[in-house]
Specification:
Strand content: 25-35%
CATH class: Mainly Beta
Protein name: NudC domain-containing protein 2
Strand order of the largest sheet: 1-2-3-8-7
Number of domains: 1
Number of helices: 2
Number of strands: 10
Low-confidence stretches: none
Pfam family, one: CS
GO molecular function: unfolded protein binding
InterPro entries: CS_dom, HSP20-like_chaperone, NudC_fam, p23_NUDCD2
Order of helices and strands: HEEEEEEEEEEH
Keywords: Acetylation, Centromere, Chromosome, Cytoplasm, Cytoskeleton, Kinetochore, Phosphoprotein
CATH architecture: Sandwich
Structural class: alpha+beta
Largest sheet: 5 strands, antiparallel
Distance between the termini: 30 Å
Helix content: 10-25%
Length: about 160
């Protein structure tokens, strides 16, 4: 079995003071560096449809209104190697035109180049889904792929 498209094509991360975030068509991923040796009982994480909060050892690391809505019951967090928290958010709107420009409203925005690369990746991911027999993971596209790229559905 081959690897999922997002693993073959890589991620386009947006760096933050606490770690990074990135996205696929369906999910948003947040990776937060925490002090080595952190235990799960030290973590307080609340994931709601449009709001997130994360505190470690009583120190708030991330809190605010998400860029767009998520499916509350499908959000998860894990503590990996006792030094990184990975949060996975399931997007409510899962089309290529829904490329988050920032993680939170008005905070942790991707710079224009990163935003362009994120949109490019989501567009290629959409092409992969629409054409499952082809591998678009290494494809190069040019032109305007904002809002999900060109619409080939009528061809």
């Amino acid at each position: 079995m081959s690897a999922p498209f997002e693993e073959r094509s890589g991620v386009v991360p947006c760096g933050t003071p606490w770690g990074r975030w990135y996205q696929t068509l369906e999910e948003g991923f947040i990776e937060v560096r925490v002090p080595p040796g952190t235990r799960a009982k030290d973590v307080r994480c609340s994931l709601r449809s449009r709001h997130i909060s994360l505190a470690v050892c009583g120190q708030e690391l991330l809190q605010g209104k998400l860029f767009d809505s998520t499916v509350t019951d499908e959000g998860t967090w894990t503590l990996e190697d006792r030094q990184m928290i990975r949060i996975v958010l399931m997007k409510t709107n899962r089309d290529a035109g829904n490329c988050w420009t920032s993680l939170l409203e008005n905070e942790y925005a991707a710079d224009p180049w990163v935003q362009d690369q994120m949109q490019r990746k989501l567009t290629l991911e959409r092409f992969q889904r629409e054409n499952p027999g082809f591998d678009f993971s290494g494809a190069e596209i040019s032109g305007n792929y904002s809002k999900g790229g060109p619409d080939f559905s009528s061809l």
